[in-house]
Amino acid sequence: MKWLRKDSYGIPIILAVGLHLSIVVAGLLVIDFGDEEQKKPKRPPIVNATVIDISQTIIGKREAEEKAAKQRAAALAEQKKKEAEQQKRKEAQRKALEEKEKQLARAKQQAQEKAEAEKKAAEQKREAERQRLAKEAERKRAAEEAEKKRLAEQQAKEKQRKEELARKVEAERQAEEERKRQEEAARMAEERKKAEEAAALAAAEEAKRQAAEAQMVQSISGLINDRLSKAWNRPPSARNGMKTTLKMSFLPTGEVLDVSIISSSGDALFDRNTVNAARKIKVEELSEIDPYLFNKNFRNITVIFNPQDLRN
Prior knowledge:
- The chain has a domain at 220-305: Fusion Protein Consisting Of Minor Coat Protein, Glycine Rich Linker, Tola, And A His Tag, Chain: A, Domain 2, CATH 3.30.1150.10.
- It has six helices and three strands.
- It has helices spanning 10-29, 58-154, 156-159, 163-231, 268-280, 291-297; strands at 244-250, 256-263, 300-305.
- It has a three-stranded antiparallel beta sheet.
- The longest helix has 97 residues, at 58-154.
């Protein structure tokens, strides 16, 4: 029966109606039906009805629990739906990004192929021009040789007596040219040797200077780290793995000009103590180094503060 379901008010209504009927029947039974003079009627008793709070009954509590369970299930379903939609959006964004990267790769490949094609065409053009110039030079040379031969044949008789003298003069000229060529070659070789020796010496000096500079930078960096560690107050919350990356600016006197946090450790007290320690230190050794090296290596530095003796 529908009115007896656990999610209805049938049973409480039945109980209330039964209570009222019991009171009415009890009133009828006490009425006197004898022949004696009817007594004055008594005042009817006042029925005290009790209002039943359905929410405090077992059924009401069960209904409240079921309603709460349905609400929790609905909230969980809504949360899962939102998470599914968020995952779907992320997947769509990932696919869009992959497609964009593929398009960029294709465009880059096409640009490279175009550049290679243009380079190849330019090389082919230069090679064709070179061959044309070579052929032109060969043609001119052949024409000149032919003209010389023709003139030589015409003047052979006149030159016959002068040939010996010409050969001697030519031999002397060639010998002089060879001597000058050898002297020039020796001079160039000497200059190359001197240049190579100077370059080697300069390279050695530069390597020595760089090694000294690197040693100096390492030494002062060690001083900065050591003084920062000594000035630092360890907070109770410090744990292994915490590190703070700072940007520090120094004056040529070795005093700290400014300190800022580049990367936090995740612990505000750890970061604050690190910044305070950095502001306290002074590196007087910086006043003794070359201004160029100071500006290059220590005007602005990055320090990763990562103590290794913290608790797990």
